[in-house]
Write a structure and sequence with these properties.
Elements lengths: L24 E2 L2 E2 L2 E6 L10 E6 L1 H19 L17 E2 L2 E2 L5
Antiparallel strand pairs: 1-2, 3-4, 5-6
């Protein structure tokens, strides 16, 4: 069950990348990815909420780390398909939905 709670937090708009602190813009458009967590009951981090804004370079560096982490956890499983890691997290590409992810 999803529970929604309303909270007021102060944030800084257009602050750039939280990892490298670069300006996350391309032309006039703000370009960034968001890494977010909201830990609830049963977690060691219960009640903590995180939100990081990442530039394109830092996002794909982080994604590469997650892919490597996934490989290290599953590489010895009989049904592990390493080729699936290349598309890990990809939902839409060139305006088309990845049918397996939706």
């Amino acid at each position: 069950m999803n529970m929604i709670r309303e909270m007021k937090c102060t944030t800084t708009a257009n602050r750039g990348c939280d990892a490298c602190r670069s300006n996350s813009t391309a032309g006039r458009e703000l370009q960034f990815a968001t890494l977010q967590a909201d830990w609830s009951q049963g977690s060691r981090h219960k009640g903590e909420t995180y939100r990081l804004q990442l530039c394109e370079s830092c996002f794909f560096g982080t994604l590469g780390y997650v892919r490597q982490l996934r490989r290290s956890h599953h590489m010895f499983e009989e049904d592990y398909d390493a080729s699936a890691d290349v598309r890990l997290g990809l939902i839409v590409e060139d305006g088309h939905c990845d049918e397996e992810k939706t």
